Amino acid sequence: MEEFSLYVLDITMNSVRAGADEIGVTIVEDGESLVFTVTDNGCGMSREQVEKLSNPFFTTRKTRSVGLGVPFLAMLSEQTGGSVNIKSRAAAEYPNDHGTTITATFGLHHIDMIPLGDMIDTVVTLIQGNPDINFTYIHKKSAGEVRLSTAELRQILGDVSLGEFEVLEWIRGYLSEAYEALR
Amino acid sequence: MKSLEELMAIKEKMHSKVALRNASDEIRVVVGMATCGIAAGARPVLNAFVEGVANGGLSDKVTVTQTGCIGICQYEPVVEIYEKDKEKVTYVKMTAEKANEVIERHLKGGSPIAEYTIGNAKI
């Protein structure tokens, strides 16, 4: 994948498929490095499953036997001098406090680092496909941060779905103005 | 700045619309958004459908949804179109441009574009 934002979309979809209804996506750029974190309250994984994750031949999916999402992320991270860390609590073991946190670091100026790409498209795509999930998106840069909480928007929207095209366009506009303000 | 008042106004507008809309969902457009789809370019395809359906006045009868891997990764981006009483149409190796054609000729015009379907695909 040529854009970092596609990795963000792909990894966050894992949380969606884990049945999470609260998902936090955070990107922190501090000049030298980029730290990308996804936290969810999904079904979680056992220690054994987490250990197998970096193996591309491990997946829980039935339609295809090779899972490439995390290996792709780990490859990019390691190529740029970073690393990936996964902490997970399986619902079977922790019925009241389960979920997964994946953290990946990247060398921002490393020659193998790829462009960030269209983060707004990624956020809008996540919301379009999953209007009932509470997404908290935070992108911190040296000049400030871009922040969006779909739970807050839902308070205003009431029973109108976040998946409505007009709402998605508002979100797109809101994010692009927030990014513009950091330039 | 995009204001929350603006969002309120959208809410009011949607409310009056929803009352008129019959939630028939005659046609479902399903875009594969697993790693295989995303890596092959599914995001712009999805957005082309979302935008084209809304701007083309098709929102009353067409819904655009996402799905995971359907097992034919080599054909991604894959788009399936489900229509009541009709056979499912599977479009493969999609692009945003092809999506716009599908909106015009299939969703609006009613005739699937055979050359973009899985039956005609070469890997």
How would you describe this protein?
The complex is a heterodimer of chains A (183) and B (123). Chain A has 183 residues and is an alpha+beta fold. The radius of gyration of chain A is 17 Å and the shape is globular. Chain A has one domain: Histidine kinase-like ATPase, C-terminal domain (Heat Shock Protein 90), CATH 3.30.565.10. In chain A, α1 runs antiparallel to α3, α1 runs parallel beside α4 and α4 runs antiparallel to α6. The relative contact order of chain A is 0.18. Chain A starts with a helix and ends with a helix. Chain A has a six-stranded mixed sheet. The longest helix of chain A has 17 residues. Chain A is built from six helices and six strands; from the N terminus they run αββααββαββαα. Chain B is α+β, with helices and mostly antiparallel strands and 123 residues long. Chain B has a single domain, classed as Glutaredoxin. In chain B, 41% of the residues lie in helices and 16% in strands. Chain B has a four-stranded mixed sheet with strand order 2-1-3-4. In chain B, a hairpin with a 5-residue loop joins β3 and β4. Chain B is globular. The mean pLDDT of chain B is 91. At the A-B interface, α1, α4, α5 and α6 of A face α1, α2, α3 and β2 of B.
What's the story with the biggest beta sheet of chain A? 6 strands, mixed
List the domain count of chain B as a whole number. Answer: 1
Radius of gyration of chain A: 17 Å
Largest sheet of chain B: 4 strands, mixed
Task: State the secondary-structure class of chain A.
Answer: alpha+beta
CATH architecture of chain B: 3-Layer(aba) Sandwich
Main interface: chain pair and counts? A-B, 34 and 35 residues
The CATH H-level superfamily of chain B is Glutaredoxin
Shape of chain B: globular
Write down the overall geometry of chain A: globular
What is the topology, as strand order, of the major beta sheet of chain A? Answer: 3-4-2-1-5-6
Uncertain runs of chain B with pLDDT below 50, 5 residues or more?
none
| H-E string of chain A | HEEHHEEHEEHH
Q: Which range best describes the helical content of chain B: under 10%, 10-25%, 25-40%, 40-55%, 55-70% or over 70%?
A: 40-55%
